[in-house]
Every structure is written in C-alpha cells, then in structure tokens.
Amino acid sequence: MLNKIYDWVDERLDITPIWRDIADHEVPEHVNPAHHFSAFVYCFGGLTFFVTVIQILSGMFLTMYYVPDVENAWKSVYYLQNEVAFGEIVRGMHHWGASLVIVMMFLHTLRVFFTGSYKKPRELNWIVGVLIFCVMLGLGFTGYLLPWDMKALFATKVGIEIAASVPFIGELIKILLAGDATIIGAQTLTRFFAIHVFFLPAALFALLAAHFIMIRRQGISGPL
Amino acid sequence: MHRGKGMKFVGDSRIKANNRMVNMPKDYSEYPGKTEAFWPDFLLKEWMVGAVFLIGYLLLTVAHPSPLEGPADPTNASYIPLPDWYFLFLYQLLKYTYASGPYNVIGAIIVPGIAIGALLLVPFLDKGPERRPSKRPLPTAFMLLALASMIYLTWESVVNHDWEAAKAQGEITDEHLGLVPEVELDKEAEGYLIYSGEQGKSCIACHGTEMEGGGAAPRLLGNELTAEEVAEVIKNGRGAMPSGQFAGTDEELQVLAEFIASLKPEE
C-alpha cells in the first residue's frame, strides 16, 4: 500500500532524488563516535538542532495559553505554570531549552573553529552559522521579557539601554524595540512577542535551511 | 551540458572532483576508513545520543521548575536587575571604569562589535590551508583568550552579585494572586485598639499591624469564623497558635472576637 502511494507520487514528482539528497549518503568514519569516541564533538550541531526542534514545539504549545498583554501576560504564565496539566513541564522545557541551545551551539561553534572546518570552501556556511548564533541570542533576549515578571522587565530595561547607547542609530533601535522613546510597557511586550514568535523564527528557518543545504552540498570537512 | 551523469564528486559532496581548489582540505574519502550509511544506520545512533540527551534535559526540567517572580512593577526602583546567565559576561564588562559611564560605547558597542565581527570574518582572517589548531597559533590563541575572558567575566559577575538580596526581591505575594480580600480595617475601632494595645501584644506580633498575617500566622482580614469560634481559638489556640496568649479581660476578649469576626468582605 505504502509502496503504491510512493510509486504514484514518484511517477508524477520524481521524489527519489530528493530522498537521496536528504538521507542517502555515507557518513565518514572520523565523525562517527561508534568508531572514535572523541568524535562525539561532532554531535553538538545535531543536538543544537534537536533542542531547536523542542523549542519550536514547546513554544507552539506555550502560545496556546500565553497572552501577550501587560494585564494578562504574567497571569497567563502563572496559570500555565500552576494550573495547566503538564504546563510546568512544557514551560520548563522551553526555559531550560533556551539555555541548552546556547550551550550546544557554543560547543558546536568551538568544534568547527578548532577543527578549522570554516576554511575554504565552507566560508559561507560559517557566516550563516554566526548569523544563526546572533538570531538565537536575539530569541533568548526577547523571550526573557515575555513572562512579564520583575526580572524580565528589569533585564530588558538594561538591554534596551545598551541598545540605545549605539552611536547615531541607538535612539531609533530603542524606539523600534520598545515602541516608545521613554516607556517600557505594553508596546514593548507586544513587540517582543512579535519578534520572538514571528520575525526571529522566520529568520532562523531561512538560515537553518541555508546551513543544511550547504552541508549537504559540501559534505562534512575531512579529518585533521 | 553535464547533468550530473559521469561527473566525479569529492566524497559524498556536490563539489566536483576535477579542477578542485588546491587549498581545499583533503576529503575523508582519501583516508582509509569505515564509512556508514546515514540512513538508517548512522541516524539510529544519532537518535540514541539524542535520547540520552533528552533524559538529562527532562531530569533538569523536572528537578528545577522554571522560575517566575512577581509581575513586573516599573515603579520599583530598588530592584537589582540581572540578565540571563549567558549575557552575564557582557553585563559584567559594562561595570568596569573604561567600559561604562563616558566610555560606555567601548563596553556596549566596540568590544562586543569587534568580537562578533572577528567571529563573522574568521574564514577571511585565517585563510591558510592548515586546519590543526597547533599549526595556526594566532587564531587558536585569540579564541582561547576570548574564551578565558568570557569565563572570567561570567565568574566575576556571579561572585559580585548579591544573591541573598536578589532572592528576597520579586516575590509573588497574595496581592499578585488576587487573594487579598477587600476589607477596610478601621484602626479606630474598639476591637482594633484592644488588638494593638497592651492586652493584644502577642496578637499583633504574629498577625501584624494590618492583620495581614505572616509566617505560620494566618491573615485575619477576610477570615471565615464566627465571633464564638474566634473567641474559642484565642482561648484554646489552634494549629500553630498557642493557647492563652490574650492578656485582657473576658469583656475585652468578647469585643476583640466580634471585631475580628466582622472583618469580612461585603457580599
């Protein structure tokens, strides 16, 4: 049955080459921890992606309860944390995942750096990787405000002050982020929500796609 | 036109094997070794690594529920702010003399800007063919230096932060949860004067001047007891409350009990 469906689609769309591009390739010995235990350093990139997927899924569930509005944001998080079945687990995974994704991505960056894997012809992929790093930090910064508790508000105040100290365009960045020249309040929360849930994930998906397509094009860098 | 057929690629990549750049590192296929099919053999192993990782991740989640402080209150001027831990090194950097105040631009923009810029441009700054860290001492040294300073700054930030004070701030109170009943406390009432007077010294010590309670002592505002029950509790104690604490006369006790029983929100 499945084969018949596959054949039916394949006859029309020729999907076998796509499958071959995604999954049908050899993995070299030097990145395989089953052959060399030290090759576990090559797992960091995959684990970063794994946590990213968990972040996307848990974040989707969080938005089912979260209300991005100054009156209700904190209340909705409190309700989610204390009343909703498994709400504490889902929020906990999103909270700890945010830290883990930074840790794993940092380790992945160090692996790529110290194995010199960014060298020709992989310069572009390195640049895309650094951009992903920046997007992740942005996700961490904007997500920190969303529970709208004391530490969220005051950390964001400091962050926005730092952004405002950029010469020439600092004030513009501040108004773009906070929604107002002086107040950090209702506008800021909805903006951070939009940035955290729509803008940055969109950028992240595009960059991840580019990252993976380039890896499949170029293969993994050879052993040292 | 080539359509991929008959073309030679380097390893499993899409880089053409002919006219290869001399600069390019040798591919693994030029080393003897055991390759493995990605699907399904290698992916299965990756899933096992992922499963072990997930167990640790879930244990962390269950053991440490994610923190939530009281709702944001912009009027609180004494709150000590703290960013998430991975921004601590930047936060610490901004505390040094030549990175703050009039030199703020150095700490907030120039230093992080140089770091991110250098990281972004690494492939163009380090163009040699060598890949081993020991064969390219400058990039290795700079990265180790950056790592060491990040670790040092994070450490300094952690030891200089007043964790005791930070823990005490931002607590979730009954007020935040809408648990404070709307009862007006008439401090001129006879009952309150007894409560706050010499006879009620031990009443006010635990239940507070606003009758808000504290520690093991419950809030008296909005209690659900009748005057008789209140008098009973005052005489004989209940739970953590010891008996015989009231030092006044029976008449005063009666007035006090009726006053406390009257502290109910209007229906």
UniProtKB/TrEMBL annotation, chain A:
Gene3D superfamilies: Cytochrome Bc1 Complex, Chain C. One of its GO terms (biological process) is respiratory electron transport chain. It comes from the Bacteria. It comes from Ureibacillus yapensis. InterPro entries: Cyt_b/b6_N, Cytb/b6-like_sf, Di-haem_cyt_TM. PROSITE patterns: CYTB_NTER. It is a multi-pass membrane protein. GO terms for cellular component: plasma membrane. This is Menaquinol:cytochrome c reductase cytochrome b subunit. One of its GO terms (molecular function) is metal ion binding. The keyword Iron applies. It is found in: Cell membrane. The chain crosses the membrane at residues 39-67, 96-114, 126-146, 193-215.
UniProtKB/TrEMBL annotation, chain B:
Residues 186-264 form the Cytochrome c domain. SUPFAM superfamilies: a domain/subunit of cytochrome bc1 complex (Ubiquinol-cytochrome c reductase) (SSF81648), Cytochrome c (SSF46626). The keyword Nuclease does not apply. One of its GO terms (molecular function) is electron transfer activity. InterPro entries: Cyt_b/b6_C, Cyt_b/b6_C_sf, Cyt_c-like_dom, Cyt_c-like_dom_sf, Cytb/b6-like_sf, Cytochrome_c550/c551-like. This is Cytochrome C oxidase Cbb3. The chain crosses the membrane at residues 103-125, 137-155. It is a multi-pass membrane protein. GO terms for cellular component: membrane. Residues 28-155 form the Cytochrome b/b6 C-terminal region profile domain. Keywords: Electron transport, Heme, Iron, Membrane, Metal-binding, Transmembrane, Transmembrane helix, Transport. It is found in: Membrane. It comes from the Bacteria. PANTHER family: CYTOCHROME C-553-LIKE, MENAQUINOL-CYTOCHROME C REDUCTASE CYTOCHROME B_C SUBUNIT.
